[in-house]
Write a structure and sequence with these properties.
Elements lengths: L1 E3 L1 H9 L26 E10 L4 E10 L1 E3 L4 E7 L6 H8 L2 H7 L2 E4 L18 H15 L2 E11 L1 H12 L7 E4 L5 H4 L10 E6 L22 H11 L8 E4 L9 E7 L8 E7 L14 H4 L8 H9 L9
């Protein structure tokens, strides 16, 4: 039996009352914007609290309009870039397509003042605690599968995704980091208790997160290179890195970019580590819409649909078994 998730619309009225106002998440440094609706989806907001820190935030959900009764849907938690909002991130990534075409519940929480505290050497907000509490509460309240929750993020959100994979690996089926290599400070203390399949998506012409890495005195701007990030996560997943397979994706758009995939599933954990190198790509979400400042961030490659890739990768994994 198929039912329309009318409860989602009701949640907007019944659960948001008494929590943060629905526009509180948009009061950040970045310009606020409305969510671009996607046909075949239902969106709503729900307040979640990290009780230990009295931290309540209004979280955006984008769900399929239909879900078979008695089933539990897979989830992608998507984290926005610095100064971003859940709506801006959803628009940049066309996140609604994950719900409409692939059946995911997409959960988009807001960082405090538009920022995720991803740097363990300079933690200002307990975002690990908040995200953990949000996931725990959501799996109790909604028909979603706690074993199939993957996380992705763009830039600051990608760094935060890696921190969650390091510090709360038991919560995540997989991680996908877009325009974010591994922060040096995180690399010095990351020791996940279980392997987490990981994908990196990085541009060689990224002006914000250099593909070759950057070692500075400031932990906020010190990153491993793209390849060292890939190799390090391969180590966490006990992969035989000499077995890495490389392939060039077809060039379908004449935008000056090309994409190389390096894939390794020869992992003692049964896991996987991949890296998509966007040649001439910038600090951007591949396949996404053009931003207001393309020259500042670099080229958005149309030779990779990062959102579709994320959906296809996440469906392979659970947090309790491998494929």
């Amino acid at each position: 039996m198929i039912f329309r998730k009318t409860f989602a619309a009701l949640v907007l009225v019944s659960l948001i009352m008494g929590s943060m106002p629905t526009n509180a998440h948009a009061r950040v440094i970045g310009q606020a914007a409305a969510l671009n609706p996607t046909f075949g989806t239902v969106s709503f907001y729900q307040g979640f609290t990290n009780t230990a820190k009295s931290d309540t935030r209004s979280v955006l959900f984008i769900t399929p309009a239909y879900q078979r009764a008695g089933t539990k849907a897979p989830v992608i938690v998507m984290l926005h870039y610095d100064t971003g909002t859940p709506e801006l991130q959803a628009n940049v990534s066309n996140a609604g397509t994950l719900a409409a075409k692939m059946g995911y519940w997409v959960i988009l929480p807001p960082g405090i003042n538009g920022h995720w505290s991803d740097d363990p050497a300079a933690t200002t907000t307990d975002d690990v605690g908040f995200l953990s509490a949000m996931i725990a509460a959501a799996t109790k309240q909604y028909p979603i599968d706690a074993t199939r929750i993957s996380m992705t993020g763009y830039s600051n959100g990608g760094f935060m995704t890696q921190r969650m994979a390091c510090e709360r690996p038991g919560l995540l089926a997989a991680g996908i980091s877009v325009a974010a290599s591994m922060r040096t400070s995180l690399s010095k203390q990351c020791a996940p208790g279980r392997p987490v399949p990981m994908v990196y998506v990085l541009g060689t012409a990224d002006p914000i997160v250099p593909y070759a890495g950057a070692q500075t005195k400031s932990s906020n701007s010190s990153f491993l290179s793209a390849m060292n990030s890939f190799l390090m996560w391969g180590g966490f997943n006990r992969c035989t890195m000499s077995s890495t397979y490389s392939t060039n994706l077809p060039v379908t758009a004449a935008d000056g970019t090309s994409v190389k995939l390096q894939h390794n599933a020869a992992c003692g954990s049964g896991g996987e580590v991949d890296i998509y190198t966007i040649n001439n790509g910038g600090h951007t979400w591949p396949g996404g819409p053009q931003l207001n400042t393309p020259t500042a961030l670099g080229t958005i490659s149309k030779n990779l649909d990062a959102t579709a890739m994320i959906g296809n990768f996440a469906k392979l994994w659970t947090n309790s078994s491998t494929h």
